Every structure is written in C-alpha cells, then in structure tokens.
C-alpha cells in the first residue's frame, strides 16, 4: 500500500470489537494512533477538527447507517479514505459503495490480523 497509515478512526457501535481491534492493531503496529467512536455523531465532530489516514466505518449502526455517515462526510467536505466494516458481504452494499469515491473496500467482522497488517502496509 502506498499510503502510510499512522492514524485510524473506527466508527462502530460494537465496544467489544473496539477492544479486540485496539489490542490487535497495537500488536501489529505499536506506534499507531487509534481513535474509536461508538456514536457516529461524535466521530463526525472529531473529524471536523482532526485528521486521520483511514476511517473504518460500520455499515449498520443504530444511530445512522454507514451510508448516512458517508453522506454527512461529503456534506461537510471531509476527505478521508474509508473501509466499510460489515458482518456479512451483501452485494447491494458493494453496489452502494460505488456511489462513494472515498470507499476503498470492505472489511468483514471480526477483523483478521493478516488483513489489518496488509491495510497498514506491514508485511507479515
């Protein structure tokens, strides 16, 4: 991967996944900066004042869908690479993602260490 990933923001309502992802990512890249949000509105506020290299965004959250979140990113002119996080690969989600140039792919829960190492540009 050509981009160096040093700061990652997660937007997902699953706190257990946050704990697992934090532990695994810090093991893969100890100096990475990680930011976790359960509430998408708080994440949007954070993104208006802060930069990150990658946003990992849950497709299905109770407050709003990942698609609604992407619409708000566009509306607020926030430019960030996004990987959509999902429990199951729904073909309609892949089709929907084509409407968003910032979406660079999909990740399936739970995140595997090999996939995260690849995304971070770290060879196994």
From TrEMBL:
Recorded superkingdom? Bacteria
Record SMART domains: REC (SM00448)
What InterPro entries does its record include? Answer: Bact_response_regulator (IPR050595), CheY-like_superfamily (IPR011006), Sig_transdc_resp-reg_receiver (IPR001789)
Keywords carried by this UniProt record: Phosphoprotein
SUPFAM superfamilies, alphabetized: CheY-like (SSF52172)
Identify residues that carry 4-aspartylphosphate.
Answer: 58
What Gene3D superfamilies does the record point to? 3.40.50.2300
Response regulatory domain mapped to chain residues: 7-124
Protein's UniProt name: Response regulator
């Amino acid at each position: 991967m050509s981009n160096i990933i040093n700061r990652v923001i997660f937007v997902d309502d699953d706190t257990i996944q946050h704990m697992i992802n934090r532990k695994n990512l810090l093991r893969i890249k100890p100096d990475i900066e990680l930011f976790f949000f359960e509430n998408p509105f708080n994440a949007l506020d954070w993104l208006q004042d802060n930069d990150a290299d990658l946003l990992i965004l849950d497709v299905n959250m109770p407050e709003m869908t990942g698609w609604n979140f992407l619409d708000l990113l566009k509306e607020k002119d926030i430019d960030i690479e996004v990987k959509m996080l999902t429990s199951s690969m729904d073909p309609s989600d892949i089709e929907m993602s084509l409407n968003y140039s910032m979406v660079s792919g999909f990740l399936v829960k739970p995140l595997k260490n090999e996939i995260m190492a690849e995304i971070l540009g770290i060879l196994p």
